[in-house]
Amino acid sequence: MPRILAVANQKGGVGKTTTSVNLAASLAGAGKRVLLVDLDPQGNATMGSGIDKRHLERSVYQVLLGLTTVQSVRQKSESGGYDMVPANRELAGAEVEMVALENRETRLKSALGTIAAEYDFILLDCPPALNLLTLNGLVAAEAVMIPMQCEYYALEGLSDLVETIRKVRKHLNPRLEIEGLLRTMYDPRNSLAQQVSAQLQQHFGDKLYATIIPRNVRLAEAPSYGAPAVSLDKACKGSQAYLALAAELLSRSAVAVA
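Predicted structure:
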């Protein structure tokens, strides 16, 4: 069975999509079978994977509403080397339409169950909100990766997300756990970043990834080329960090299996 990870944080601009796309490409580069699911109506993971969200005939929107199968929607990211379930602005309406549907929290889980055996890793790029789309991601996942910047407001938002994960575990998905916290856009010259990083280390211990993602221009530029940074410029500091994150994730998964 695959390792299904929700990449989630209700705070925007913390590097969720950058992490999802580059981690997917890094794992694919390591020979793993990877599926990336875009659950954000902005469709940034879709565009960053080289798939034009403006010309999609079908997307994750139709999958969640039960109008089509995930098999008919997934595409190959040629630039990233992984499979992709794309999204576009249509997805913004799904949350309202899903409210009246049965099993609204488990629709993504049911859809992925039909293809899960084909993959080693399934990554779910969740939107920057604790809404029904994110809830579908948390119910479908077995663990949550939390990208976050080392700043004060990030700590406040983290407590809300941890509480949501607890509630989902209690009522909807008892296997859900925190896979790890990932420090992103890190600037070691910033004293506040150092202080927050130390606090995270103190409170979360081995749940904090050793890998730190630095601020890096190439990571920001890569989406405009429709490619993950690790495919575009493997030597840049940002790419090297995501390759190291993939290696750390694989190491953790190997330990868990053993």
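Summary: The longest helix spans residues 237-257.
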